[in-house]
Write a structure and sequence with these properties.
Blueprint lengths: L1 H7 L3 H8 L5 H11 L18 H5 L5 H11 L2 E7 L7 E6 L13 E6 L6 H13 L3 E9 L5 H10 L1 E5 L4 E3 L5 E3 L4 E6 L3 H10 L2 E3 L4
Parallel strand pairs: 1-2, 3-4
Antiparallel strand pairs: 4-8, 5-8, 5-9, 6-7
Helix pairs in contact: 1-3, 5-8
Pfam families: Dam
InterPro entries: Dam_MeTrfase
Protein name: HTH cro/C1-type domain-containing protein
Length: 214
């Protein structure tokens, strides 16, 4: 006790209090510096998607187990308009930026389009999905996006014409390195052209609930 007190500059009374489980955090840290100078705090990895460059923030991929529920409830995916070669999403047609494609410009086609867009440009992709569904280029659209309800487009259009499922809990996305990372925000499924039976099946598979249509 005397050696610890001398090395830390703390009183013997303070050191004795720490031994009994008392004392302040500041005093405890001084003792740890002396007793375990090489100790480092091991914190769990978290997904700070707001940091880093935009390309890194947007490179998060829907996990296979999440997609299994999508396939089961809504059917096979005909089109992934914002695909990535590293994404596990299975689709008959993929529009890849890495190959010069642009799902915000090219026409969509098929029965079901699955959209997990770059979240930094989420609203543009939701508008594009709505437009391509509205003109009949795709029969059904399923979008996985953050719960952001502040846009006029959400209030004026989606809330009236889309069926929206609020997911309970956080989804573990895949990072570019293949690691699982929970999203640091809540997510929702925005669907266009889904049937009541499809929505019922999805509600049985996933935790959350469908919003009532206004």
């Amino acid at each position: 006790m005397e050696q610890v007190a001398a090395k830390t500059g703390l009183s013997r009374t303070t050191v004795a209090s720490l031994e009994r489980g008392g004392g302040s955090v500041a005093s405890l840290m001084k003792v740890l510096v002396v007793l375990a100078p090489n100790a480092r705090r091991q914190a769990p990895e978290r997904s700070y998607w707001g940091q880093g460059d935009k390309a890194d923030r947007d490179s998060r991929f829907t996990p296979p187990d999440f997609m299994d529920d999508i396939y089961t409830a809504f059917g096979a995916v005909d089109l992934d308009p914002c695909a990535d070669v590293r994404s596990p999403v299975i689709a008959n047609r993929r529009i890849l930026v890495s190959e010069g494609g642009d799902g915000l410009v090219e026409d969509w086609s098929g029965g079901l389009a699955y959209v997990n867009p770059p979240f930094s440009n989420m609203l543009a992709w939701l508008r594009r999905a709505y437009e391509q569904w509205r003109v009949g280029n795709v029969r059904t659209v399923v979008c996985l996006v953050p719960v952001r309800t502040d846009s006029a487009f959400f209030h004026d259009t989606l809330i009236a014409e889309a069926d929206i499922f609020l997911l309970q809990g956080r989804v573990k996305f895949l990072s570019p390195q293949g690691k699982s990372q929970h999203t640091p925000f809540s997510l929702m499924i925005v669907t266009l052209g889904t049937t009541a039976e499809q929505r019922r099946r999805y509600a049985e598979l996933a935790s959350g609930h469908w919003l009532a249509r206004i």
